[in-house]
Amino acid sequence: MNENDKIQLFEDRRIRTAWDENKREWYFSVSDVVAVLTDSADVKQYIKKMRWTSPS
Fold first, then answer.
1. Do the beta carbons of residue 7 and residue 19 sit within 8 Å?
2. C-alpha distance from residue 46 to each of 21, 27, 49 (Å)
3. CA angle 29-30-32, nearest 5°?
4. Do 17 and 36 touch, CB atoms closer than 8 A?
5. What is the reported pTM?
6. Which ranges constitute the DSSP H helices of the chain?
Protein backbone atom coordinates (compact mmCIF):
# COMPACT_ATOMS: atom_id res chain seq x y z
CA MET A 1 0.00 0.00 0.00
CA ASN A 2 1.53 3.29 -1.00
CA GLU A 3 1.11 6.53 0.92
CA ASN A 4 -1.94 7.57 -1.15
CA ASP A 5 -3.82 4.31 -0.57
CA LYS A 6 -5.52 4.59 2.78
CA ILE A 7 -8.03 2.78 4.92
CA GLN A 8 -10.98 5.03 5.73
CA LEU A 9 -13.37 4.36 8.56
CA PHE A 10 -17.14 4.66 8.34
CA GLU A 11 -19.06 3.77 11.49
CA ASP A 12 -15.93 1.95 12.73
CA ARG A 13 -15.82 -0.23 9.60
CA ARG A 14 -12.87 -0.27 7.20
CA ILE A 15 -13.21 0.93 3.60
CA ARG A 16 -10.24 0.60 1.26
CA THR A 17 -9.49 3.69 -0.81
CA ALA A 18 -6.99 4.85 -3.41
CA TRP A 19 -6.10 8.38 -4.50
CA ASP A 20 -5.51 9.11 -8.20
CA GLU A 21 -3.14 12.07 -8.26
CA ASN A 22 -3.65 12.77 -11.98
CA LYS A 23 -7.45 12.95 -11.76
CA ARG A 24 -7.39 14.22 -8.17
CA GLU A 25 -10.11 11.72 -7.22
CA TRP A 26 -10.64 9.13 -4.52
CA TYR A 27 -11.66 5.59 -5.45
CA PHE A 28 -13.45 3.36 -2.95
CA SER A 29 -13.78 -0.41 -2.74
CA VAL A 30 -17.33 -1.24 -3.83
CA SER A 31 -17.44 -4.41 -1.76
CA ASP A 32 -16.35 -2.54 1.37
CA VAL A 33 -19.00 0.17 0.84
CA VAL A 34 -21.74 -2.41 0.20
CA ALA A 35 -20.71 -4.32 3.32
CA VAL A 36 -20.98 -1.19 5.47
CA LEU A 37 -24.28 0.00 4.02
CA THR A 38 -26.11 -3.35 3.92
CA ASP A 39 -24.62 -5.43 6.76
CA SER A 40 -24.84 -8.33 4.31
CA ALA A 41 -23.41 -11.64 5.49
CA ASP A 42 -22.15 -12.41 1.95
CA VAL A 43 -21.21 -9.22 0.12
CA LYS A 44 -20.15 -10.98 -3.09
CA GLN A 45 -23.56 -12.65 -3.39
CA TYR A 46 -25.32 -9.36 -2.59
CA ILE A 47 -23.45 -7.58 -5.40
CA LYS A 48 -24.10 -10.49 -7.77
CA LYS A 49 -27.86 -10.31 -7.06
CA MET A 50 -27.82 -6.52 -7.53
CA ARG A 51 -26.30 -6.96 -10.99
CA TRP A 52 -28.95 -9.51 -12.01
CA THR A 53 -31.88 -7.41 -10.79
CA SER A 54 -30.78 -3.99 -12.05
CA PRO A 55 -32.60 -2.62 -15.10
CA SER A 56 -30.77 -2.48 -18.43
1. no
2. 31, 20, 5
3. 65
4. no
5. 0.71
6. 30-38, 43-53
pLDDT at 43: 94
**Residue 7 half-sphere exposure toward CB, CA atoms < 13 A:** 5
Long-range pairs for 22-25: beta carbons < 8 A, 24 or more residues apart: none
- Summarised one tens digit per residue, pLDDT across range 6-31 is 778 887 888 898 999 999 999 999 99
d(CA 30, CA 41): 15
Delimit the domains of the chain by residue range. Answer: 7-53
